[in-house]
Amino acid sequence: MVTPAVTSPKATVPVRSARDAVSADLWCKQVGLLMRDYPYDSVMAARVLGQGYAYLLTAMRHRGEGLGLAPSTLVDIGVHTIILDTVAYAQLCDRFNGGHFLHHVPKVDFKNDGSVTKTAHIVAAAGWDVDLPLWADAADCGPCHPGNDSH
Q1: pTM for this entry
Q2: C-alpha 121: how far from its chain's center?
Q3: Angstrom distance (rounded) from CA 81 to CA 20
């Protein structure tokens, strides 16, 4: 499957797939969890999961920068699938976030400030493959805690 690329800004490293960041067993398990909990086939579940990983790994890379990163509604479903598997998520934080746990602090109100679109561009600039249709609700979403070491 070819996904539309974010056109600006350009990736600063070669485009990589979030699928390569975790073991095949964990990937299959989490795709299965998405298929169990949502009306997704394996293709859609893998797309959502991949964007969840790309978002989280970008947030870890930019820890402490106060960028106000925010996922779209669909990407956030992938994020939740990842972080609810707490043992695997803690290992992910150890591996990619210097042992620091990246907390999830959602807000009640959605924002309409462009932060999700900005986040998609930051994810692309970090070198991740961005599946733009999954970020399409960007104008109405962004419930996460801005300006600190959480997402």
Answers
A1: 0.83
A2: 12
A3: 17
Q: Rounded to an integer, what distance in angstroms lies between the CA atom of residue 110 and that of residue 148?
A: 18
Alpha-carbon distance 125 to 118, whole Å?
A: 11
Task: Establish how many alpha carbons lie within 13 A of residue 76's alpha carbon, considering only the half-sphere containing its beta carbon.
Answer: 19
Give the C-alpha separation, 137 to 46, whole Å.
Answer: 19
Burial class (CB in 10 A: 0-12, 13-18, 19+), 127: middle
Q: How many angstroms separate the CA atoms of 126 and 13, rounded?
A: 7
Which tokens is 36 given?
């169990």
pLDDT tens readout for residues 29-56: 999 999 999 999 999 999 999 999 999 9
- E strand segments, the chain: none
The DSSP output letter for 149 is S
Rounded Cα–Cα distance for residues 43 and 50 (Å): 11
